[in-house]
Write a structure and sequence with these properties.
By secondary structure, the chain is an alpha+beta fold. It has helices spanning 15-27, 88-91, 95-111, 185-199, and strands at residues 6-13, 34-40, 43-46, 63-65, 72-75, 79-87, 118-120, 123-128, 131-141, 144-152.
Amino acid sequence: MGNNITFKSLGLVDYEDSFAAMKSHIAQEGFEDQVWLLQHSSVFTLGTAASKEHILDAKEIPIIQSDRGGEVTYHGPGQLVLYFLLDIKRLGWGPKALVKNLENFIQDLLKHYDIETNIIGGAPGVYVDEKKIASIGLRISRGKTYHGISLNVDMDTEPFNQINPCGYEGLKVTQMKDFIDIIDIKSVESLAIEMLGKKL
């Protein structure tokens, strides 16, 4: 859309550190639109609708309360997390349009890798058949959004078995590695930046 958006590739970041940084950025007087691309160390996060009953066995993985929408999810190395710190008034997007546009973006991204995806009504995120490959959790404050999308690229998905992902008992997850023999998360990140630069 011809607007200046800063893309930040941050590598492996502790969840609590990025959470605090997002809230700080949103509160700034001189707010600027940014998209952060990163990975998290292993962590379970609870959205505002989450029940701890959906954490079946955390084992050694930390549990952190977040202020994003949604239920419980898992973040870990090999999962590409994209945080959208955007003035959605400028974009002319309401909450529903925001979610739809982000889902469409992930679907278009995965098409580049010949991974066919679908959307399930009432269950935000992107799926391959019935298995979830990308989760969405957002918060909007004073016309600005933060949090975003987590896309499973090449990670250990076992911790998802320790929860009811997104609050759904028995929900299975998948990742790009299940469909592509060799996948590099940095190349996925680069393509995401290229595509978002044209979309936002």
